[in-house]
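Researcher: Please translate sequence to structure tokens.
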Amino acid sequence: PEVSFTAICDVYSPRLGDAVEHAPDAKHYADYRALLDDKNVDAVIIGTPDHWHAQMTTDAVNAGKDVYVEKPVTHKLEEGAPL
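Model: Translation complete:
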């Protein structure tokens, strides 16, 4: 009850539709970069396939968002260095 979802993002429209049913007042996006541009979004939860974790986390931090990312943070060891 103390949490308000302001935005939801999923590239897969059926899954996005399911999520919107649970948070009908939230804005919805198919492109995570548009969500990161939203000044009303303070924090993001990243729950994507592993190969997207590093890029989305980096983009979210650069956009000034607090981030919770499901493990692993990177898909390959080499992706950890630029973070």
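Researcher: Any highlights?
Model: The longest strand covers residues 43-46.
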